[in-house]
Hints:
EC 3.2.1.99, four-stranded antiparallel beta sheet, 1 helix, mainly beta, Tachylectin-2, Chain A
Amino acid sequence: MKKVLLLGMICTALFGCSSESGQSEMQETYQNPVYEPVLADPSILKAEDGFYYAYGTEDAWGDDAETKLVPIVRSKDLSEWEYIGEAFKDKPEWKGSGSIWAPDIHHYRDSYYLYYSLSVWGDNNPGIGVAVSDTPEGPFEDKGKLFTSEEIGVDNSIDPFFYSEDNQAYLVWGSFHGIYGVKLAEDGLSVQGEPFEIAGTDYEAPYIVKRDSQYYFFGSKGSCCEGENSSYHVAVGRSDSFTGPYVDQEGKPLMENGGTTILAADSESKFAGPGHNAILTDEAGKDWMVYHAIEKEDPLLWSGASRRPLMIDPISWEDGWPVVRDGRPSEEPQEAPVTE
């Protein structure tokens, strides 16, 4: 981890910076990306062992076609990460073909639950499954599918997000055909009842957090995977109820594809396509957005797929709405999360 001096009252080119007491203080920082070469569609949690674990979409990192079946990276401080292995020893067999996309990790019922998509590009019947492990590093035991798109009646059923409140578990999912939710059985391994719609067709990669008495929906819009030309960005809405209706800061319903953009790239940015976020709270109570983005100067993996490394940036709350500083991915060293 990099170190920087906290600025004091006196700073000279010859002697550096000093605090008012004359003593230099050191502060931990991070700089994006925090993990490379790739950890796309990240999901994250702090595990019972005190480490942070992040999980990403299946990708080929090496010089051949072999992919990592949900890569797992681990960190003590959210700034320096190490690759520790794959969540799966073998690809789930309940679908004839497909890659494991957009895993979503949660500690639930004393186990680690990993919800995942199984799909190929242009798939007319992708689906969502779930795997369980006693430890965050796996290997995860596949429990099979929750549903396919045809079975649940929602096109392009990918990008799962698990939520539990008041002894009721939910799954939220969807990709540019509407964002939907459905109740889950108590064990989290099957659906109950009919799906309900949460947001419109501009969105994928849903993530919902509760703050005080309101629920905040984060979703990604635009193109995720066109290298330096990717237009991915994160927009938010809020609701008094988990099931909605959600509206943006101007009052436009997310069901009508409203949404207040809080993280995007522009022509001056080093990064393109920031999105598919998760949210984590550090030990000081500060919220952090965890997401992927694409470095414009090195946008592709050897396979031609977009190279989407792991990024983090802090969230502030202003007038009841989340704000990411400057509304774009940070590029210079920043104050690190408090993790101890």
